[in-house]
Amino acid sequence: MKRKFIPCLLALALSAALAPSALAAAPPSPCYPVSVTRSEDGAQIRKVYELGPEDDPAGIPRSDFEQEGFHYTLTDLLKQEAPEQEQRFHTETVTLNSKSKDMEAVLSLLPAQREFTTEDGLSGTLELRLDTVKVEVAGYGSTTKAVSATRTYPNLSSQDTSYIPKEITDNGRTLELASIDWRTDSATDVDGYAVADRYTAVVTYTGSATSSYVKGYTVTADYSGSVSRIALNKVRYVAIFEGSPLAPIEPEPSLSPEPEPEPEPEPEPSPNVQGPSVPAIQFRWSYVLIPLGAVAAIGAGIGMALFIRKRREGDDGDETDGGE
What we know:
Oligomer: single chain
């Protein structure tokens, strides 16, 4: 088990040691120019790159190169900030509390213009849109208070509470009997003492009353207008390459065989020939001289043979004449 565990630890340690170097060796993403300009004499080339905040300028090519008879070398890399103005139409909704729903009181809480800054950093002056102003009840509350009512019941023969109602309804509220105040209306003389024979009951009823009220009002309104900001979203790099002319290359001697002489052109046909084109007939003297030479040779041979024959005949005649 230990023999297998130790190689695993060594492999993990080696991978952990090589991981930072592998990450550091990762090449940057290549950058491409947005414009390339070349001087009239070809001695300088400027390449413009526009990179975002997340782009790495290490991806800008810096190697020498050759183009149109020049060898170019990077001499300078200029960095230029490229600010951009971002602008858009924005609407902001505001919410505030009011103790009154009166519109005059509400508008006193809303200025005609307000300065706003959006979450992404754009700012501007927005104007109130009166058609968007709304007032709504924020909520209701309730209160409870004690209420009482008095009732008088006269001409009662006795102080008997059975004659007294135990509860009454007053202004829609139910009140219960709380106390009775008995008063004597009349009395009878009995043995020199006045004895009451008629009573009036003054009854007090009590209860509670609950009422609701508006806690306040919520006012909402929209402000609209243009917001803008100056953002450095791009960085411009200008790569300047200086060029030097390349030495002319002498052509190597050609090892190809000499071209064969072109055949002589055939004579053009006579301009007097009419009609469709007819191939030209070339006159050659050999066609005439050879037969004439042959005829002359034959004639000379025949003449020579006749001459020899005639001479022989002449010699034969002379010998005949001498023998006679």
